[in-house]
TrEMBL record:
It comes from the Eukaryota. GO terms for molecular function: actin filament binding. GO terms for biological process: actin filament severing. It comes from Zizania palustris (Northern wild rice). It holds the Pfam family Gelsolin. CDD domains: gelsolin_S2_like (cd11289). This is Gelsolin-like domain-containing protein. Residues 83-151, 198-269 form the Gelsolin-like domain.
Amino acid sequence: MISIIGLDEAGTAAIKTVELDAALGGRAVQYREVQGNETEKFLSYFKPCIIPEEGGVASGFRHAEVNEREHATRLFVCRGKHTVHVKEVPFARSSLNHDDIFILDTNSKIFQFNGSNSSIQDRAKALEVVQYLKDTNHEGKCDVGAVEDGKLMADADAGEFWGLFGGFAPLPRKPFFELNGKDTIFSSKLICIIKGQTVQVDCDVLTRELLDSTRSYLLDCGSEIYVWMGRETPLEERKRAGSAAEELLREGNQPKSYIIRLMEGFESHGRI
């Protein structure tokens, strides 16, 4: 789910997911992913990374604008030793820092800037992204340069790199780009869907015995919301549970939280 998606689209996606799950027998565990805050599992399906592009698909919800510009210079920040989180950041010197790895994709050359505090594993994964950009955006025909944080104009690649930013200047210590927000203390709460309405379940301890096979429930854990659907729950009530989870995220200002949908009897190990 893209980070700027409209509320109507998010709600429709939740309903269609329930309909698709019902058509497939209701056995699948469903995950709601948000752009910029994807789970490691989701990212692992895309090699070497996901790089969101501006635009979209024309539909009743939006008019897609086609970008017909020539190759634009773009700056990306990369994080991750196993799966890579890639995000485009403003093409400005203030976006750089000592802790991360940045990739500058220009018309004729791709630069990998290695922050002085970045790890060897991070640098290796970022190099895979560089190769991906070279193959995808340049048909494999462009130069690649490596820039080490702290090396100034004496290095040819470094001189060319910093020249694109208007010259060298000290970098800020605090990272410009944050993947995750601050952790907060959160008390889990169980919510039941009754006749289309959400009703909080009063309980001191969460147990499986609280769940009724004829109803759907939301378990709000802060960073993630579980939607548990009893095997005898009507399809319309399952749809309502999905849209209620989206509403709960908006009301609680938790737009980047995950939603995980589970059908009774097909919960994955370690879930509810």
